[in-house]
Amino acid sequence: MGDVVLQVAGISKRFGGLQALSDVGVTIHRGQVYGLIGPNGAGKTTFFNVITGLYAPDSGSFELAGKPYKPSAVHEVARAGIARTFQNIRLFPDMTALENVMVGRHIRTSSGLFGAMFRTRHFRDEEAAIARRAQELLEYVGIGRYADYRARTLSYGDQRRLEIARAMATDPQLIALDEPAAGMNATEKTQLRELIDRIRNDDRTILLIEHDVKLVMGLCDRVTVLDYGKQIAEGTPAEVQKNEKVIEAYLGTGAH
């Protein structure tokens, strides 16, 4: 098992009278696909939003690649090394696919405003390198031929791939995917699974929130199950599927 990439512990979050998360934690190792499942309202999205800086936690400790980080703002978390996608696709619809990925890459650039304003040699060289890397990532996720297409003209499945390419452009330690299979047909889900497998095989690390239990159980190395904001199980897919609490809370509802 690889080094620990993400270790969070004791995460709690309350919204008014609702305790959305109670003492939740995960440990994710390098090269793992780690799944987070649970019924609607279980706290999955809240957990995701806390570790990626959208919501401030009421309590909890956060370490990324052995270093503490503070999930106080999305851009700071991105700089620390977590890239995420969203359940509702958030691309720049009128930019090309290539430009969308280049935007993701800019978090790792050094030219600054001066270079951009005066188009210094360093700025031009860096932009060319960013464009090359963006094209490589589009090829990697399987949509290189659409580099010059506006994002909104791509199919739904290809827009999801574009989001993943943009997330990868930040060179993250952890890629956090929020319901990537939502709205996909069977063929697109198969392609998504192949892409996630490829990313893992390249020693990258993924945290996956997903409603599709079958996809999670067939893809993930380890799974945490939330119910009413509490962690009711954690383990391999085989262990989790046998857990009585999980069967009662989730798998017993016919979502196999």
TrEMBL record:
One of its GO terms (cellular component) is plasma membrane. It holds the Pfam family ABC_tran. Residues 6-253 form the ABC transporter domain. One of its GO terms (molecular function) is L-phenylalanine transmembrane transporter activity. One of its GO terms (biological process) is L-alanine transport. Keywords: ATP-binding, Cell membrane, Membrane, Nucleotide-binding, Transport. This is ABC transporter ATP-binding protein. It comes from Ramlibacter algicola.
